[in-house]
Amino acid sequence: MVDLLGLALRVTASTLFFVFANVVRQLFFANKNEPPVVFHWLPFLGSTITYGMAPTDFFADCQKRYGDIFTFILLGRKTTVYLGLDGNEFILNGKLKDVNAEEVYGPLTTPVFGPDVVYDCPNWKLMEQKKFVKFGLTQQALESHTQLIEQEVLDYIKTSPRLKGQSGTIDIAAAMGETTIFTAGRALQGAEVRKKLTTEFAELYHDLDKGFSPINFMLPWAPLPHNKKRDAARNRMRDIYLDIIKERRSKGTSQESDMIANLMGCAYKDGTPVPDEEIAHMMICLLMAGQHTSSASSSWIFFRLASEPDFAEELYQEQLRNLSPNNKDLPPLQYSDMAKLPLLQNTIKETLRLHGSLHSIMRKAMIPLPVPGTDFIIPASHTLLASPAMTSLSPAFFPNPEIWNPHRWSTSSDLPETTEEIAEDDKIDYGYGVVSKGTKSPYLPFGAGRHRCIGEKYAYLQLQVIVSVLLRHFRFGNMEGVEGVPETDYSSLFARPKLGSFVRWERR
């Protein structure tokens, strides 16, 4: 008993010593050439918990105390945040030799997607892989995707047990998770893959998705239960894709025109054909990319529409007014119809502005980086963090930013331009086609720079079609006694609504 008491006293004394030393270092030995460090008591833990609970609130509080540039401790790592348009430009448009995404995200994504793709390969190879994948994101492809997405939503309405009867309640986040994976599977991956999106595949996807747990930034290979399930799911999904590829190769010339067929015919710039395993890993990545953001965003849209049913009716009436010859019978959707639904487009823009999935985008500083206009030099040991969500929530760019108001996009000429409207001097080709740098805009729901999401146009189309079709069939409302929308869940890498939140629905 005495020994245990003595041990407890020694541990307590050691802890207090390290806390004291940490505080003294912050108060009296700060490096004036580096950004200010957010005050913290515990050396390794730092501000991890405060940041993890509500990142944008944490950034806003630090911005008031320290300005746009500050450093906080994230699980032992010095993470320098640079907010605002200048911060987005500095970090997201940094030169490849200065800032690196692979160093940050590689340990997290490689066990999920598999080796030799995305952040587990040289940057030039990643740019080539993005060029290959753009096959499914061309104008012609988007036009054909419209009908495929619509049919998937209609099939879901007919077959889902969540929508049986004339009215009921529905877990929107769960329903949108299913809908977006079905639509992404059919449009981006092809009919053959879509047939395999059965209960088994859905369970595999769920286990694989758990690999994006924040703890895996530090312990991606730890023998934790969720990591074991992640690895088993990745291997099984890889084998499913490899079986499809093997069967097609055995048949010789394929008549398919989907993404797998495209990748099977691609070669890197040195003439090396894309290996089958890399094709399988790219297909896993593509499926998850086509589902993650859209699942959260579509959930937020319907939570907002349920809280404001009169506005939802405006969207339905817009379809009747602009797409129906007799203002009664709505025809099947066409890609060209999307341009005729400006209020729907603005609804999606506003939802992505207020409920963006990307609250933090990180890079590794590869060399000491002077910050223009300041005396700060960010050491090469630091992780850099940009937060496009903070400009989207700034009253400097969006009046009353905390209010969800899709009409703001049609009534103000001061709001940022969309990707299609970006000036020529803000465009660049990183190796997979001309894209917008994006960093001049405060509205960046899909990131910016060489790593910005290439599926932006597909995501907008997917959301537009899903919302349009469901509003043709249902009215939505909040549960009795519920006001507003659920809180944001930051426990995953991507911000999303709190799970298990229900809304009411009834058939038109």
TrEMBL record:
Heme binds at C453. GO terms for cellular component: membrane. GO terms for molecular function: heme binding; iron ion binding; sterol 14-demethylase activity. It holds the Pfam family p450. SUPFAM superfamilies: Cytochrome P450. It is found in: Membrane. Keywords: Heme, Iron, Membrane, Metal-binding, Monooxygenase, Oxidoreductase. Its cofactor is heme. CDD domains: CYP51-like. Its main location: membrane. Belongs to the cytochrome P450 family. This is Cyp51A.
